[in-house]
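ENTRY TYPE: protein
WANTED: fold as tokens:
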Amino acid sequence: MTKAGSRIVDLVLLIAVIVAVWQGIYLLAGDAALSAPLETVRHAIELLARPRFWLDIGESAHAFAYALVIAWLGGVGIGVWLGGHRLSGDVVEPILVALYSLPKVTLYPLILLLFGLGISAKIAFGAIHGIIPVAIFTMNAIRNIKPVYVKTAWMMGLSPLATVRTVLIPACLPEIVSGLRVGFSLTLLGVLIGEMFASKRGLGFVIMNAIGLNDVRTMLAVTLLLFVFAALANSALLALDRHLHKRV
């Protein structure tokens, strides 16, 4: 069996195990706590057929796209700066790690105060979740770069900006992509949490509304759709990550 075939078999077995465990928990807990896998998939298809649901998808996708761009670009920029300036990195790194470990939901009142209700607060909350891991991954990648690369750039007379663009970022790209992959998932989580707390539209609002109405089917159906999206996106980023690491 080829390597690709083996991965497909492993994926099918993993899905089968997840579905079996899900079905087993459903039989034990009943409809009040969980919906059956087949019923959840059926309801997810029903939701996708509703125009109103696509408005919620569009709202979440809009906020997520902006938050992801801010988290990725901001995280890489901060990481390059802190990694290239040792003193700044030593001072700021403990602060970043402390913020990374802090439950971000405690910052949400401040986010609402600064940005108010609406899409701006969701974008800011999503970006806060994703920007720190991207910055930490990038900073450590810059710190661990081989000194010969920097010396070569210096001997060639490259400017600091040219050194970052043509030497540092290409050399650290595999580690940076690893940080982008982590930042992707956390940014999505941040946007959804933001929609749960103060929003009238979006997938996070749909989940929160379903919880309030004890609509287990809708809650799990939306969660399933989000899981599939996140899994596919992370699989693509992971494939890129592995490809870049093989080239190093």
